[in-house]
Amino acid sequence: xxxxxxxxxxxxxxxxxxxxxxxxxxxxxxxxxxxxxxxxxxxxxxxxxxxxxxxxxxxxxxxxxxxxxxxxxxxxxxxxxxxxxxxxxxxxxxxxxxxxxxxxxxxxxxxxxxxxxxxxxxxxxxxxxxxxxxxxxxxxxxxxxxxxxxxxxxxxxxxxxxxxxxxxxxxxxxxxxxxxxxxxxxxxxxxxxxxxxxxxxxxxxxxxxxxxxxxxxxxxxxxxxxxxxxxxxxxxxxxxxxxxxxxxxxxxxxxxxxxxxxxxxxxxxxxxxxxxxxxxxxxxxxxxxxxxxxxxxxxxxxxxxxxxxxxxxxxxxxxxxxxxxxxxxxxxxxxxxxxxxxxxxxxxxxxxxxxxxxxxxxxxxxxxxxxxxxxxxxxxxxxxxxxxxxxxxxxxxxxxxxxxxxxxxxxxxxxxxxxxxxxxxxxxxxxxxxxxxxxxxxxxxxxxxxxxxxxxxxxxxxxxxxxxxxxxxxxxxxxxxxxxxxxxxxxxxxxxxxxxxxxxxxxxxxxxxxxxxxxxxxxxxxxxxxxxxxxxxxxxxxxxxxxxxxxxxxxxxxxxxxxxxxxxxxxxxxxxxxxxxxxxxxxxxxxxxxxxxxxxxxxxxxxxxxxxxxxxxxxxxxxxxxxxxxxxxxxxxxxxxxxxxxxxxxxxxxxxxx
Length: 658
Known about the structure:
It is found in: Membrane. GO terms for molecular function: ATP binding; protein serine/threonine kinase activity. With 658 residues, this protein is an alpha+beta fold. The chain has five domains: 2-27 and 286-312, no CATH class; 44-140, Gnk2 domain, C-X8-C-X2-C motif (Killer Toxin P4, Chain A); 154-257, Killer Toxin P4, Chain A, CATH 3.30.430; 319-417, Phosphorylase Kinase, domain 1, CATH 3.30.200; 419-658, Transferase(Phosphotransferase), domain 1, CATH 1.10.510. 36% of the residues lie in helices and 17% in strands. It contains 18 helices and 22 strands. The strands form six sheets. Strands 11-15-16-14-13-12 form a six-stranded mixed sheet, with helices on both faces. Strands 1-4-5-3-2 form a five-stranded antiparallel sheet, with helices on one face. Strand 13 and strand 14 (366-372) form a beta hairpin. The chain is elongated, with a radius of gyration of 33 Å.
């Protein structure tokens, strides 16, 4: 019986839905193309700039306008956009709002057309505003989000006049507007809107009103904006449509709204003579209410199927996380054009999750595009994870995410571009390695350490990277390191980062994985510490972690470094170019010692990254004694503890690694 009912119910609901559709015409008498919505669309332009077409502001504005059709529609028909850095004078901020009756798709189409028309009508201006028939769009080179703006003002002609006593009608409509004003102002950050109706005297003529503010305004600013409009537009007017950039209102004697959009209090001045009207309204309300209930049930029953279909088509994502990221969503065609259709000539490298390409946007900005492989293990979850994580991180030693792109099965991450690419292109290349003098290598080591301290302890969201390696450390023009690729990162509350966690899916790069993570899926901040220790030894030796010396092929880099350090033969593992240029300095010795501390087999024996930074900054003290590294393949006799190393012949308190 259950199967029978569940299979037939949707058909029954559809039958009832179409049975009552004709009755909807009684209530849905508003048309978004009706003259009541048609208002003057004269653009307002200001801040004229010479040589505008060649300016960065113009390029940012064009990029913003072209991205509008690719935005994810939202149910509130309000959008705030920006292109450019917060501190940049060439940054463009924009805002758009549609009429309440407009569908999400029609809203975006209206905004896109309004934006194109506005930039065409104001070709050399840094500020502009237009109120189209069904939506408004404005942009500026100054911050506009949350800012009250009442200029310019526009008023639409009144298509009808009241047959009531003029003064009494004006008084009643003012009462209705003032009743709706606080309702709209008290709305949340998504919508500030209210609508309602009242009855005039003596013939009980029904009139209707709607008030709306841009949702970014505070309650006080919304109140002030509407009060300003009421005070300047309602005097002596019977019915009015009034508009400014931050708020609008309209009141008419022949405007009926969708009942399901009704959000204000019911009329309080209903007369006693409209019995026939009451009967009609009650009948229509009952029918529409029933239809709405049926429609809601139908939507609930089909929601899961619709979501699954959208997910298969690549259109379903966790919108809340993406919205939190506050990033620019790039158009796929513009990225494909920027990378020359992802040509091999533009490919910078390829990892487990996909390839990275160099691109040049139409306004000249160079970008790095990470194109996730459709066959990789990183799907929607990892993609959304990386977008939401990286967008919230701000540090000198972390790469900056510029935006993302979702198109069908395509998942693209757009980063700032570094001509020097990644660290592995230098330290593992015989010729390029010569460029990296010890001062540069030391600056890279310390920079990566500081970036990890930020991730583990200082950021708003404490993060374990889990895939730190040479190819995930990018170098800018000044050879400052930037930690990249957060696809496998894990986020924790501030007091949870140091706790040990387990995962059934071990992902990362062998050679950089800590023993406990590779063997049992156990990870903590000490997992990143181990990877950092491997990275230190690679930077100092110029060898990959899987390298082994010819004379002892059974030893790999960590084992050989430990054996050489324990036997006092550190020269065997230091890159020869460093010895030739500066000799074996105390600083190199200290870094090798710290690297060995970081790769100790037991996680509890490794220092935290905060302790590592202290070790780098201290000029003279005795470091803790390291034990053998994880995955040590040498003889078991070497388990002995090595003697501590002291710089400048001065000793001080020995650090106890945590």
